[in-house]
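Last lecture ended with a question: if I hand you only a sequence, what can you say about the shape of the protein? Today we answer it with a concrete record. The protein is RNA polymerase sigma factor. Below, first the input exactly as provided, then the predicted structure, then a couple of comments.
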Amino acid sequence: MTQGEFFTEFSRMTSMLNAFAYNLTKNSEDAKDLYQETAFRAMTNRDKFRPGTNLKAWLFTIMKNIFINNYRKKVKANTIMDNTDNLYYINSGAETVENDADSNILIKELTGMIEVLDDSTRIPFLMHYQGFKYQEIADHLSLPLGTVKSRIFFARKDLKSQISRQYGKLREA
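The predicted structure:
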């Protein structure tokens, strides 16, 4: 297979390779990196491809192996190796204590703000917060779906207004 034929066949498989990369990584940026690394390795090792065999399978195998190797590197990077005599580094972190006072106060304040809401908006909002889907809330409260969505929207808007009054102007995200 000539270099031109190889490049032509490779470019025909670009969309499949990108889709496979995204399927492996579940992240578009990581998928782009994986595709780029696969393309680089395929081009540099083009001479190792045997004509008459399945190019698609060869490329997918390269991509899968790169993904597995990168995954193993990430797992090893999160492993702490302590070679000190008494395992000083591993044991030194055991004495830290977290202070949740700030977050507990904020949760209490937020809960108070939610309690101030009118029942017509508070109940659908809390149900949505607890994980109920819009349709489940509508069925449970015997309301139209649009009404439920509106009430949750207005609850969020009221909470944002209360937070803004208490803590000042919020940055728009």
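Comments.
1. Residues 95 and 150 are 49 Å apart (CA to CA).
2. The chain has a mean pLDDT of 85.
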